[in-house]
Specification:
Elements (H helix, E strand, L loop, with lengths): L1 E4 L6 E7 L6 E2 L4 E7 L2 E6 L4 E5 L6 E3 L3 E6 L3
Antiparallel strand pairs: 1-8, 2-4, 2-7, 3-6, 4-5, 6-8
């Protein structure tokens, strides 16, 4: 499993839109969600292809390094 974490440039934010449902197949570099900070929205992309497992639902407050989701290998 490959973790998708809150990027280093974000100290604290909240999870905005998820563009894929839990269990969906994603491809490398797909836009999977947004993390909203005070005056900006940051895009989070898949780093590998596989099955998306969301760990931080929409509106969850997250901090640098927190796990947003994991991507499991697709069989």
């Amino acid at each position: 499993m490959t973790p998708i974490v809150v990027p280093d440039e974000i100290n604290e934010g909240s999870v905005g839109n998820w563009y894929f449902d839990d269990g969906a197949r994603v491809r490398t570099d797909d836009l999977i969600c947004e993390v909203m900070v005070e005056k900006a929205t940051n895009e989070v992309r898949a780093t590998v292809a596989g099955i998306l497992r969301i760990r931080a639902p929409t509106e969850t407050v997250v901090h640098r390094g927190d796990t947003l989701a994991v991507i499991e290998p697709a069989l």
